[in-house]
Amino acid sequence: xxxxxxxxxxxxxxxxxxxxxxxxxxxxxxxxxxxxxxxxxxxxxxxxxxxxxxxxxxxxxxxxxxxxxxxxxxxxxxxxxxxxxxxxxxxxxxxxxxxxxxxxxxxxxxxxxxxxxxxxxxxxxxxxxxxxxxxxxxxxxxxxxxxxxxxxxxxxxxxxxxxxxxxxxxxxxxxxxxxxxxxxxxxxxxxxxxxxxxxxxxxxxxxxxxxxxxxxxxxxxxxxxxxxxxxxxxxxxxxxxxxxxxxxxxxxxxxxxxxxxxxxxxxxxxxxxxxxxxxxxxxxxxxxxxxxxxxxxxxxxxxxxx
Length: 306
Prior knowledge:
- By secondary structure, this protein is of the alpha+beta class.
- The protein folds into three domains: about 5-115, no CATH class; about 120-225, 2-Layer Sandwich (Tetrahydropterin Synthase, Chain A); about 230-290.
- Helices cover about 45% and strands about 20% of the residues.
- It contains eight helices and ten strands.
- The strands form three sheets. Strands 7, 8, 9 and 10 form a four-stranded antiparallel sheet that branches.
- Strand 3 (about 80-90) and strand 4 form a beta hairpin.
- Helix 2 packs antiparallel against helix 3 (about 50-70) and helix 5 (about 160-175) packs antiparallel against helix 6.
- The longest helix has about 40 residues, at about 230-270.
Protein backbone atom coordinates (compact mmCIF):
# COMPACT_ATOMS: atom_id res chain seq x y z
CA UNK A 1 0.00 0.00 0.00
CA UNK A 2 1.63 3.22 -1.16
CA UNK A 3 1.70 6.56 0.66
CA UNK A 4 -0.48 8.15 -2.05
CA UNK A 5 -3.17 5.53 -1.42
CA UNK A 6 -3.01 6.16 2.32
CA UNK A 7 -3.36 9.91 1.82
CA UNK A 8 -6.62 9.47 -0.12
CA UNK A 9 -8.21 7.30 2.57
CA UNK A 10 -10.36 8.86 5.27
CA UNK A 11 -8.76 7.62 8.46
CA UNK A 12 -10.88 6.99 11.51
CA UNK A 13 -9.96 8.49 14.86
CA UNK A 14 -10.57 6.93 18.23
CA UNK A 15 -12.57 8.95 20.74
CA UNK A 16 -13.94 8.28 24.19
CA UNK A 17 -17.25 6.47 24.26
CA UNK A 18 -20.01 7.00 26.81
CA UNK A 19 -21.26 4.08 28.86
CA UNK A 20 -23.24 3.87 32.07
CA UNK A 21 -21.84 2.34 35.22
CA UNK A 22 -22.75 -1.32 34.97
CA UNK A 23 -23.04 -1.91 38.69
CA UNK A 24 -25.47 0.98 39.16
CA UNK A 25 -27.60 -0.20 36.23
CA UNK A 26 -27.53 -3.75 37.60
CA UNK A 27 -28.86 -2.46 40.93
CA UNK A 28 -31.58 -0.51 39.09
CA UNK A 29 -32.80 -3.56 37.15
CA UNK A 30 -32.67 -5.65 40.31
CA UNK A 31 -34.84 -3.07 42.06
CA UNK A 32 -37.36 -3.11 39.18
CA UNK A 33 -37.50 -6.92 39.32
CA UNK A 34 -38.02 -6.96 43.08
CA UNK A 35 -40.71 -4.29 42.85
CA UNK A 36 -42.55 -6.26 40.14
CA UNK A 37 -42.42 -9.47 42.20
CA UNK A 38 -43.63 -7.69 45.32
CA UNK A 39 -46.43 -6.05 43.37
CA UNK A 40 -47.46 -9.38 41.91
CA UNK A 41 -47.75 -11.20 45.26
CA UNK A 42 -48.92 -8.41 47.54
CA UNK A 43 -51.26 -6.31 45.47
CA UNK A 44 -52.97 -8.66 43.01
CA UNK A 45 -56.11 -7.28 41.37
CA UNK A 46 -59.22 -8.39 43.18
CA UNK A 47 -61.64 -10.73 41.61
CA UNK A 48 -64.18 -7.95 41.62
CA UNK A 49 -61.77 -5.49 39.99
CA UNK A 50 -62.68 -3.91 36.73
CA UNK A 51 -61.31 -5.22 33.46
CA UNK A 52 -59.31 -2.00 32.98
CA UNK A 53 -57.58 -2.51 36.31
CA UNK A 54 -56.70 -6.09 35.46
CA UNK A 55 -55.36 -5.09 32.05
CA UNK A 56 -53.36 -2.24 33.59
CA UNK A 57 -51.89 -4.50 36.24
CA UNK A 58 -50.95 -7.15 33.67
CA UNK A 59 -49.47 -4.52 31.34
CA UNK A 60 -47.30 -3.15 34.17
CA UNK A 61 -45.94 -6.60 34.94
CA UNK A 62 -45.25 -7.38 31.27
CA UNK A 63 -43.61 -3.99 30.74
CA UNK A 64 -41.35 -4.50 33.77
CA UNK A 65 -40.35 -7.96 32.57
CA UNK A 66 -39.60 -6.70 29.05
CA UNK A 67 -37.59 -3.73 30.35
CA UNK A 68 -35.49 -6.00 32.57
CA UNK A 69 -34.91 -8.67 29.91
CA UNK A 70 -34.03 -6.16 27.19
CA UNK A 71 -31.93 -4.11 29.59
CA UNK A 72 -29.83 -7.13 30.50
CA UNK A 73 -28.64 -7.27 26.88
CA UNK A 74 -26.87 -3.93 27.37
CA UNK A 75 -24.35 -5.19 29.91
CA UNK A 76 -20.77 -5.94 28.88
CA UNK A 77 -17.52 -6.53 30.73
CA UNK A 78 -14.16 -4.93 29.90
CA UNK A 79 -11.04 -6.80 31.02
CA UNK A 80 -7.75 -5.00 31.75
CA UNK A 81 -6.02 -3.91 28.52
CA UNK A 82 -9.19 -4.45 26.53
CA UNK A 83 -11.46 -1.99 24.73
CA UNK A 84 -14.97 -2.01 23.28
CA UNK A 85 -15.83 -0.11 20.11
CA UNK A 86 -19.43 1.19 20.30
CA UNK A 87 -21.54 1.66 17.15
CA UNK A 88 -25.14 2.76 16.73
CA UNK A 89 -26.78 1.72 13.45
CA UNK A 90 -23.40 1.75 11.71
CA UNK A 91 -22.23 5.03 13.24
CA UNK A 92 -19.12 5.06 15.43
CA UNK A 93 -20.02 6.33 18.92
CA UNK A 94 -16.68 5.99 20.71
CA UNK A 95 -14.48 3.45 22.47
CA UNK A 96 -14.72 2.33 26.09
CA UNK A 97 -11.33 1.42 27.59
CA UNK A 98 -12.06 1.50 31.34
CA UNK A 99 -12.14 -2.00 32.75
CA UNK A 100 -15.15 -3.22 34.70
CA UNK A 101 -18.88 -3.72 34.14
CA UNK A 102 -20.57 -1.24 31.77
CA UNK A 103 -24.02 -0.76 30.29
CA UNK A 104 -25.19 0.85 27.04
CA UNK A 105 -28.47 0.83 25.22
CA UNK A 106 -29.13 -2.72 24.00
CA UNK A 107 -29.38 -1.64 20.35
CA UNK A 108 -25.82 -0.29 20.42
CA UNK A 109 -23.28 -2.80 19.07
CA UNK A 110 -20.08 -3.55 20.98
CA UNK A 111 -16.93 -4.89 19.29
CA UNK A 112 -14.23 -5.90 21.74
CA UNK A 113 -10.61 -5.29 20.77
CA UNK A 114 -7.57 -6.45 22.69
CA UNK A 115 -5.00 -3.68 23.25
CA UNK A 116 -2.49 -6.05 24.83
CA UNK A 117 0.93 -6.63 23.31
CA UNK A 118 0.92 -9.37 20.67
CA UNK A 119 3.96 -11.43 19.76
CA UNK A 120 4.33 -12.89 16.26
CA UNK A 121 7.14 -15.08 14.96
CA UNK A 122 7.01 -14.92 11.19
CA UNK A 123 7.52 -17.84 8.87
CA UNK A 124 10.85 -18.20 7.09
CA UNK A 125 10.68 -16.42 3.76
CA UNK A 126 13.08 -16.75 0.87
CA UNK A 127 14.28 -13.45 -0.61
CA UNK A 128 17.22 -12.04 -2.55
CA UNK A 129 19.59 -9.70 -0.76
CA UNK A 130 21.09 -6.55 -2.28
CA UNK A 131 23.55 -8.59 -4.37
CA UNK A 132 20.90 -11.04 -5.56
CA UNK A 133 21.95 -13.92 -3.33
CA UNK A 134 18.99 -16.07 -2.20
CA UNK A 135 18.66 -16.09 1.57
CA UNK A 136 16.18 -17.31 4.18
CA UNK A 137 15.03 -14.80 6.76
CA UNK A 138 12.50 -14.60 9.61
CA UNK A 139 11.68 -12.11 12.34
CA UNK A 140 9.90 -11.68 15.65
CA UNK A 141 7.52 -8.75 16.08
CA UNK A 142 5.81 -7.28 19.15
CA UNK A 143 2.83 -5.12 18.25
CA UNK A 144 -0.31 -3.68 19.85
CA UNK A 145 -3.44 -1.79 18.85
CA UNK A 146 -3.02 1.94 19.51
CA UNK A 147 -6.16 3.25 17.77
CA UNK A 148 -9.15 0.90 18.02
CA UNK A 149 -11.23 2.89 15.54
CA UNK A 150 -8.63 2.50 12.80
CA UNK A 151 -8.12 -1.18 13.59
CA UNK A 152 -11.85 -1.95 13.33
CA UNK A 153 -13.03 0.41 10.57
CA UNK A 154 -10.01 1.18 8.32
CA UNK A 155 -8.94 -2.40 7.53
CA UNK A 156 -10.99 -5.53 6.98
CA UNK A 157 -9.19 -7.84 9.41
CA UNK A 158 -6.40 -6.12 11.28
CA UNK A 159 -4.74 -9.35 12.50
CA UNK A 160 -4.46 -10.74 8.98
CA UNK A 161 -3.34 -7.31 7.80
CA UNK A 162 -0.53 -7.34 10.38
CA UNK A 163 0.70 -10.80 9.31
CA UNK A 164 0.82 -9.84 5.64
CA UNK A 165 2.54 -6.52 6.26
CA UNK A 166 5.18 -8.15 8.47
CA UNK A 167 6.17 -10.44 5.62
CA UNK A 168 6.14 -7.55 3.12
CA UNK A 169 8.24 -5.34 5.41
CA UNK A 170 10.68 -8.18 6.03
CA UNK A 171 11.16 -8.66 2.29
CA UNK A 172 11.68 -4.93 1.78
CA UNK A 173 14.31 -4.53 4.49
CA UNK A 174 16.07 -7.78 3.59
CA UNK A 175 16.52 -6.63 0.00
CA UNK A 176 18.15 -3.34 1.02
CA UNK A 177 21.41 -4.81 2.31
CA UNK A 178 23.78 -7.64 1.40
CA UNK A 179 23.96 -10.71 3.57
CA UNK A 180 27.67 -10.28 4.26
CA UNK A 181 30.40 -7.75 3.50
CA UNK A 182 31.97 -8.84 0.23
CA UNK A 183 33.61 -5.48 -0.46
CA UNK A 184 34.75 -2.38 1.39
CA UNK A 185 31.58 -0.56 0.29
CA UNK A 186 29.32 -2.85 2.35
CA UNK A 187 29.06 -0.85 5.56
CA UNK A 188 25.67 -2.27 6.58
CA UNK A 189 25.01 -6.00 6.26
CA UNK A 190 22.23 -8.26 7.43
CA UNK A 191 24.63 -10.47 9.37
CA UNK A 192 26.90 -7.85 10.88
CA UNK A 193 24.58 -4.88 11.51
CA UNK A 194 21.76 -6.34 13.58
CA UNK A 195 20.93 -3.09 15.40
CA UNK A 196 20.63 -1.11 12.19
CA UNK A 197 18.57 -3.77 10.41
CA UNK A 198 16.22 -4.23 13.38
CA UNK A 199 15.65 -0.48 13.63
CA UNK A 200 14.91 -0.24 9.91
CA UNK A 201 12.51 -3.18 10.18
CA UNK A 202 10.63 -1.59 13.07
CA UNK A 203 10.35 1.74 11.24
CA UNK A 204 9.21 0.02 8.05
CA UNK A 205 6.50 -1.93 9.87
CA UNK A 206 5.28 1.12 11.79
CA UNK A 207 4.91 3.00 8.52
CA UNK A 208 3.01 0.14 6.90
CA UNK A 209 0.73 -0.53 9.89
CA UNK A 210 -0.07 3.10 10.65
CA UNK A 211 -3.23 2.88 8.53
CA UNK A 212 -4.57 0.17 10.86
CA UNK A 213 -3.75 2.00 14.10
CA UNK A 214 -1.09 -0.58 14.95
CA UNK A 215 2.18 0.26 16.72
CA UNK A 216 5.23 -2.02 16.56
CA UNK A 217 7.20 -1.87 19.81
CA UNK A 218 9.93 -4.31 18.86
CA UNK A 219 11.08 -6.10 15.72
CA UNK A 220 14.19 -8.20 15.15
CA UNK A 221 15.58 -10.93 12.94
CA UNK A 222 15.44 -14.42 14.43
CA UNK A 223 16.70 -16.44 11.47
CA UNK A 224 19.19 -15.51 8.77
CA UNK A 225 20.92 -17.99 6.47
CA UNK A 226 21.83 -18.55 2.86
CA UNK A 227 19.37 -20.59 0.84
CA UNK A 228 20.27 -24.31 0.63
CA UNK A 229 21.26 -24.11 -3.05
CA UNK A 230 24.15 -21.72 -2.35
CA UNK A 231 24.83 -22.45 1.31
CA UNK A 232 27.75 -24.81 0.53
CA UNK A 233 29.47 -22.36 -1.82
CA UNK A 234 29.04 -19.47 0.59
CA UNK A 235 30.38 -21.58 3.45
CA UNK A 236 33.54 -22.32 1.47
CA UNK A 237 33.87 -18.60 0.70
CA UNK A 238 33.56 -17.72 4.37
CA UNK A 239 36.13 -20.36 5.25
CA UNK A 240 38.48 -18.96 2.60
CA UNK A 241 37.99 -15.44 3.98
CA UNK A 242 38.78 -16.70 7.45
CA UNK A 243 41.94 -18.45 6.25
CA UNK A 244 43.07 -15.34 4.34
CA UNK A 245 42.45 -13.12 7.35
CA UNK A 246 44.37 -15.48 9.61
CA UNK A 247 47.27 -15.74 7.14
CA UNK A 248 47.39 -11.97 6.81
CA UNK A 249 47.63 -11.55 10.55
CA UNK A 250 50.36 -14.21 10.77
CA UNK A 251 52.40 -12.59 7.99
CA UNK A 252 52.12 -9.12 9.51
CA UNK A 253 53.24 -10.49 12.87
CA UNK A 254 56.12 -12.42 11.27
CA UNK A 255 57.35 -9.34 9.42
CA UNK A 256 57.42 -7.40 12.67
CA UNK A 257 59.31 -10.15 14.45
CA UNK A 258 61.92 -10.41 11.66
CA UNK A 259 62.33 -6.66 11.64
CA UNK A 260 62.84 -6.60 15.39
CA UNK A 261 65.31 -9.50 15.22
CA UNK A 262 67.46 -7.90 12.49
CA UNK A 263 67.38 -4.55 14.24
CA UNK A 264 68.44 -6.13 17.53
CA UNK A 265 71.32 -8.01 15.88
CA UNK A 266 72.58 -4.87 14.19
CA UNK A 267 72.16 -2.64 17.24
CA UNK A 268 74.05 -5.02 19.52
CA UNK A 269 76.81 -5.60 16.90
CA UNK A 270 76.36 -9.36 17.12
CA UNK A 271 76.73 -9.97 13.39
CA UNK A 272 77.10 -7.96 10.20
CA UNK A 273 75.28 -9.31 7.14
CA UNK A 274 75.57 -8.20 3.54
CA UNK A 275 72.49 -7.80 1.39
CA UNK A 276 72.45 -11.34 0.05
CA UNK A 277 72.89 -13.06 3.41
CA UNK A 278 70.44 -10.65 5.01
CA UNK A 279 67.82 -11.62 2.41
CA UNK A 280 68.52 -15.31 3.02
CA UNK A 281 68.10 -14.88 6.76
CA UNK A 282 64.82 -12.99 6.27
CA UNK A 283 63.57 -15.77 3.96
CA UNK A 284 64.44 -18.47 6.48
CA UNK A 285 62.80 -16.62 9.36
CA UNK A 286 59.63 -16.01 7.34
CA UNK A 287 59.43 -19.69 6.40
CA UNK A 288 59.81 -20.70 10.05
CA UNK A 289 57.30 -18.16 11.37
CA UNK A 290 54.66 -18.54 8.64
CA UNK A 291 54.81 -22.28 8.09
CA UNK A 292 51.92 -24.58 8.93
CA UNK A 293 54.20 -27.18 10.45
CA UNK A 294 57.03 -27.08 12.98
CA UNK A 295 60.42 -26.25 11.44
CA UNK A 296 63.26 -28.82 11.59
CA UNK A 297 66.53 -26.97 12.12
CA UNK A 298 69.67 -27.95 10.19
CA UNK A 299 73.01 -27.35 11.92
CA UNK A 300 75.58 -25.69 9.64
CA UNK A 301 79.03 -27.00 10.61
CA UNK A 302 80.82 -24.75 8.13
CA UNK A 303 80.85 -21.04 7.70
CA UNK A 304 77.89 -18.77 7.16
CA UNK A 305 78.67 -18.58 3.44
CA UNK A 306 78.71 -22.35 2.87
